[in-house]
Write a structure and sequence with these properties.
Keywords: 2Fe-2S, Electron transport, Iron, Iron-sulfur, Metal-binding, Oxidoreductase, Transport. It holds the Pfam family Rieske. One of its GO terms (molecular function) is CMP-N-acetylneuraminate monooxygenase activity. This is Rieske domain-containing protein. It is globular and about 75 Å long. With 464 residues, the chain is α+β, with helices and mostly antiparallel strands. It has eleven helices and 22 strands. The strands form six sheets. The chain has a six-stranded mixed sheet with strand order 11-12-13-14-15-16, with helices on one face.
Length: 464
């Protein structure tokens, strides 16, 4: 292995006069030479600092006008809130910590903000690039790969670096903030998503601010932010070739017509054009039948045979889909014997194992149009003590209402599946009061459910 060591990068240097002007509480400061922004928190016994960048999607923090103690800042993108006195996010509650900078004082009484950078694992054992032949990739000593966690959802999302004969390919698809923002520069090919909108937010939400007008404006603004974020990332990393390829999905079932009409997608060509305005990076979006000869394009980006486009008029989406096999599986759960006994509710949520959290959820089984399903279940779950009250408790508590299509929720319950099948796929309609994302709740049901499904066989024997 090559010799690689941790480095300390100086991000900001405040003069003694600037240090004297720091006030108690939150200070927003900028490095005028780089244009980068930082936050300093000062108290009598404490001095902390971080980048002015939300770890969710890199949004800028501003003063939180709802904070009377002068300790929190609010992200301008999605209203995430950070307590800079502790460097913990308070919205979403119980979620993440901000990456903290090192604060040191120089001999000249200057204040230094330093970022400690561990060695990049992709820089170890470097290999010299070799010529590539079209279609030659083999699983041998020339091929190696590295999986990097996402900085926001490390349990769920990853990105990957694949190297073959010294040529690196970086794939960041579906990562919110891949590897916490630390990624290799000048890779031969970078691949990513471009569309957004698969999570169901905010189209599946209603109540409070979630009016049709608000949702339409949010989607328009959010899609633009995503394009700018991707373009900035490409500009910073400077790959030889950039390929936005993930985002070709469509809400094809007739029951999802509303989502299809409102969930506007980004156009990869729009992203490519934005990148071309700000850098010299070559962009390519694959379509059915298209090919990229990476070896040719790396040798000569102007080679007309390096990219073969599909015939004119080639369709991206099919004209029709056969939903039958999928719906048959889902519908099989609706009439399952499990659901003849209302005690399945306690059995299921006890198995799920989430409790000791102040949140009350109302679960409603619905038809395809999210109206209550005739004979379906409508119940409350109080996750503070994992009880199932008939009415909401009198104590102060956050509340969520989750309407789920009966075939999907029963399929998920019966098979002990993760709730991605509900949340991603537009199978629910949600309301929440107050409007807070309960990270611990959703994180548990999305990734932390038991590996084996509920023992419904024993349950039915007991019920019988």
């Amino acid at each position: 292995m090559g010799s690689i060591e941790q480095t300390a990068e100086l991000l900001l240097c405040l003069s003694p006069a600037e240090v004297a002007n720091l006030k108690e509480g939150i200070n927003f400061v900028r490095n005028k030479s780089t244009g980068k922004d930082y936050i300093l928190y000062k108290s009598k016994s404490l001095l902390r600092a971080c980048k002015n960048m939300c770890k969710h999607q890199g949004g800028l923090f501003i003063k939180d006008i709802e904070d009377l103690d002068g300790r929190s800042v609010r992200c301008t993108k999605h209203n995430w809130k950070l307590d800079v006195s502790t460097m913990k996010y308070i919205n979403p509650p119980g979620s993440f910590c901000q990456d903290e900078l090192v604060v040191e004082e120089s001999k000249e009484n200057e204040l230094l903000l330093l970022e400690l950078n561990p060695p990049n694992p992709w820089d170890s054992e470097p290999r010299s690039p070799e010529d590539l032949a079209f279609g030659e990739v083999q699983v041998d000593k020339n091929l190696r790969f590295m999986i990097l966690m996402d900085g926001i959802h490390p349990e769920m999302d990853t990105c990957i670096i694949v190297e073959y004969k010294g040529h690196k390919i970086l794939n960041t698809v579906d990562c919110t903030r891949p590897n916490g923002g630390r990624l290799p520069m000048k890779v031969d090919l970078m691949m990513s998503d471009f569309a957004g909108g698969a999570s169901g937010f905010p189209m599946t939400f209603s109540g409070g601010k979630f009016t049709e007008e608000w949702k339409a404006q949010f989607i328009k603004t959010e899609r633009k932010k995503l394009l700018n974020y991707k373009a900035r990332l490409v500009k910073d990393l400077q790959p030889r070739i950039y390929c936005p390829f993930a985002g070709y999905f469509v809400e094809s079932h007739p029951s999802d017509k509303y989502i299809k009409e409102t969930n506007i997608k980004n156009d990869p060509d729009e992203l490519n054009n934005l990148i071309k305005k700000n850098s010299d990076v070559l962009t390519w979006t694959p379509r059915p039948g298209a090919t990229l000869d990476l070896g040719r394009m790396l040798k000569d980006p102007t080679d007309s045979k390096g990219i073969i486009e599909p015939p004119e008029g080639t369709k991206i989406y099919k004209d029709s889909w056969d939903f039958g096999p999928y719906l048959k599986i889902l519908n099989a759960a609706v009439g399952d014997e499990i659901f003849r006994h209302s005690s399945w509710i306690k059995e299921y949520f006890t198995w799920a194992g989430f409790k000791d959290y102040n949140l009350v959820v109302r679960m409603i089984e619905t038809d395809e149009d999210f109206s209550p399903f005739p004979g379906g279940y409508d119940y409350l779950v109080d996750f503070l003590d994992l009880s199932f009250p008939k009415e909401r408790p009198s104590r102060e508590h956050p509340f969520e209402e989750i309407r789920s299509r009966v075939d999907v929720i029963r399929h998920v319950v019966k098979n002990g599946l993760l709730w991605d099948d509900l949340y991603i796929g537009f199978q629910t309609r949600l309301q929440r009061d107050p409007d807070i994302y309960h990270h611990l709740f959703w994180n548990h049901f999305q990734i932390k459910l038991p590996l084996t499904p509920p023992d419904w066989k024993s349950f039915l024997m007991y019920c019988g």
